[in-house]
Amino acid sequence: MDRKKFLWTSLLGALIPAGKFSFSGKSEQVVGPVVISTWDNRKANRAAWDILSKAGTALDAVEAGARVPEADPADHSVGYGGYPDRTGKVTLDACIMNEESRCGSVAFLQDIKHPVSVARKVLESSPHVMLVGEGARQFAMKQGFKKENLLTDHAREVWESWKKNPEFPVTSWDKYINHDTIGILALDEQGNLSGACTTSGIGMKMHGRVGDSPLIGAGLFVDKEIGAAAATGVGEEVIRVAGSHLVVELMRHGSSPVEACKQAVDRIVSNNGGQMEGQVGFLALNKNGEYGGYSIQPGYSYAIRDMKTEELVKSKSRF
Ligand code: SD4
After folding, report:
1. Distance, CA of 277 to CA of 298 (rounded, Å)
2. For ligand 1, what atom is nearest to the CA of residue 236?
3. Which residue(s) pair with 302 in the sheet?
4. What torsion do the CA atoms of 242, 243, 248, 251 make, to the nearest 10 degrees?
5. What backbone torsions phi and psi does residue 221 show, to the nearest 5 degrees?
6. 0.85 cut: is pTM over it?
7. How far are the Cα atoms of 223, 245, 281 from residue 118, in angstroms, in the given order?
8. For residue 6, pLDDT beyond 70
9. Which band of pLDDT confidence, cut at 50, 70 and 90, is reported for residue 165?
10. Bridging pattern class, strands 280-286 and 34-38
11. What's the N-to-C CA distance of the chain in angstroms?
């Protein structure tokens, strides 16, 4: 980006009214770089936009964005401050993928605050795509990541109160999901797409449980010819339909981002006999800068940032 264009971009950035809300059931389109993320991750988008607006890469942007909720103790679905599993351990899942189908992923990782950056190291500094558990932690420490306690006092209290009444049906998991898992997709000035997804998973999950978020094709998928998609919500449902891959393939066959997300939601609902209590939300961005989302239950939103707007969009839902 030349200096004039950069200044223009920065000026526009300064003029954008933060906190704008809209409601959308159709795909919207942007021109130029853009970042979108699940839920109200506008702060994450800002970190990503700092990079995109200076002609940085989509890969750097999504990593920087995902690190924001990972470091935020008030976010109970991601990184530090995330709710623990049934044994009181915070276990993290994350992945990252670029436009060349290069990807890195970690699952069931403990004691490391920024799993998305470990996933990026897996992509760049290992011959593998996915590392889990103790192996992932050892790899992270060799790469210079620090061991940290990720269980905050608040998260421990929630776990302790759960332990007093530990039996509840799976659908009650929604109470512990908190819906903050970030899936973040970016298109940079060069027209390259990347995505990342990071989570502490469903609170009070079984020890050893891995959700959709670190699974390429489930929680995240990027295809340079078509676009990218990410998922949030009950990971088991997303894995069963390879959700993000499904959304990208539906776009390949002509669906708009919103239509593709809606069809993936419909597939999950029909797998469940037409009725569901759990939540799943999808987010999609195509190569042309068109984006959209759709969810099973009401209440899902996604955040967008581009040269002209910073917005939180309320998604349409099946129910
Ligand atoms: C999981 N999909 O581990 C994640 C949870 C989530 O907002 O998205 N929470 O199943």
Report:
1. 11
2. 10
3. 38, 313
4. 120
5. -155, 140
6. yes
7. 22, 23, 25
8. no
9. confident
10. unpaired
11. 44
Amino acid at 104: G
Q: Which residues form the catalytic set?
A: 181
Question: What's the sign of the alpha-carbon dihedral 296, 266, 199, 230?
Answer: negative
Residue 171 binned pLDDT confidence (cut-offs 50, 70, 90): very low
Which atom belonging to ligand 1 lies closest to the Cα atom of 179? 7
Q: Are 257 and 291 in contact (CB under 8 A)?
A: yes
- Where in the chain are the domains? 30-317
Q: Are 200 and 91 in contact (CB under 8 A)?
A: yes
Structure tokens at 72: 């935020």
Please name which of 123, 95, 272 lies closest in space to residue 184, comparing C-alpha atoms. 95
For ligand 1, say whether the CB of 69 is within 6 Å of any of its atoms. no
Long-range CB contacts (within 8 A, 24+) of 3-10? 6/53, 6/54, 6/55, 9/53, 9/307, 10/53
Residue 211 CB–ligand 1 contact under 6 Å: yes
Query: Is there a contact between 231 and 281 (Cβ–Cβ < 8 Å)?
Result: yes
Q: How far is CA 103 from CA 29, 95, 191, 217, in A?
A: 26, 7, 18, 11
Residue 146 in tokens: 């620090």
Q: What is the CATH number of domain 30-317?
A: 3.60.20.30
pLDDT per residue as tens digits for the range 237-283: 999 999 999 999 999 999 999 999 999 999 999 999 999 888 999 99
Give the Cα separation of 243 and 226 in Å (integer): 16
Best probe residue, ligand 1, of 199, 205, 220 (max atoms within 8 Å of C-beta): 199
Pocket test for ligand 1, best of 177, 280, 283, 315 (most atoms within 8 A of CB): 177
Check if the beta carbon of residue 102 is closer than 8 Å to that of residue 123.
Answer: yes
